[in-house]
Amino acid sequence: MRKYTIKTLKKHHMRGTIEIVKDGHHQTVSVGYGYYRRKINNGSAKLVYPVGSLQKSITAAIITQLIYQKKLSQNTKISHWYPLLKHSSKITVGQLLTHTSGINIVGTESSHGVNFSENGAIKWIVAKADATPSTKIGQFNYNNANFVLLAGIIRKVTGKSYAANVRSRIIRPLHLKGTYIYQDILRPKTDAISYLYRYGKNYQSPSYANKYVVSQLPGAGNLFSTARDYFKIQQGLSNGKILTKKQFNYLTHLKSKMTTYSGGVYLKNRGRLKLAYGNFGDTHFVNWMQLTTDNRNGIVMFLNQPYGSKNQNRRVAYGILKHIKSGIFIKG
Fold first, then answer.
1. Signal peptide: which range, if any (predicted)?
2. Could you tell me whether strands 190-191 and 47-50 are parallel, antiparallel, or unpaired per DSSP bridges?
3. pLDDT level of residue 187 (50, 70, 90 thresholds)
4. Domains in the chain, please, with CATH?
């Protein structure tokens, strides 16, 4: 698997780190530099990568913990915490978790030149939502704002910051060594740089995760991690360390879901597969997860130099997945 994966990535000029899982055994495969100028290899203990939208399942898991602690329910109206937010008396927690709230904010992954505090970012999202036309409540419309508002609910219910909840409920129970909310990244470590393959050369057009954009996305894009740590998180979502299998099933089968998306992941192949795709605005980072729901086979792929379009990256990943197990995985 290692040789095949390295050959495949190099063939398509892709650079990054992948956690490969086959029959319950996992290994990390890394190719190229995560920080070319400083010659730091992908997979180095010094590097962390923006998780992007793959963070949403983590935010959803914390909400699920609070639901099982009877602090709220998927049917609780968000006016309980956001009484002044437009249409909040008609929107449920479950609708935030399934992107069916009707909230439709553009520009959440473009820099607005402000380094927001966590609470400041949530207030900014509320103000933007009030000033932006909504889509129909109950209709699927993927939007980062839903999960920023969920981060705010976590703050209000627990009386602690979203960041503190991630540390206490995710990082510490799993003993993760390479996962941080952006502002907590330790000084010896650094976030990776993203690149493009252009004009026959690797490592062109360097781009990093802009701190202003990161600050806008608590709960939806301010987490940095590694492929290995992220796989451990996915294991934790059903092995009892974060959620039980029953709780994960609850999270992925919310009543408000209108597609296969629920709680940060898409379920496919009659519930046998879980998928998530992420990137980070105005950078070249691409993240792709496709795992069997029992976490015994699949990949977590963090690329800092991708290959073409979203579908092209998926096709390359699918080639690796077929090499792991044929007849299980899907192309998209």
1. none
2. parallel
3. confident
4. 2-324 (3.40.710.10)
What pLDDT, on the 0 to 100 scale, is given for residue 9? Answer: 96
pLDDT at 281: 86
Burial state string for 225-260 with b = 16 or more CB within 10 A and e = fewer than 16: bbbbbbbbbbbbbbbebbbeeebbebbbebebbeeb
Sheet containing strand 273-279, edge to edge, reads 25-31, 15-22, 298-305, 286-292, 273-279, 265-268, 261-262
* φ and ψ of 12, to 5 deg: -100, 15
What are the two backbone dihedrals, phi and then psi, of residue 124, each rounded to the nearest 5 degrees? -65, -40
Q: From its phi and psi, is residue 219 left (phi > 0), alpha (psi between -120 and 50) or beta?
A: left
- Cα three-residue angle 109-110-114, rounded to 5 degrees: 105
Total Cβ atoms within 10 A of residue 136: 10
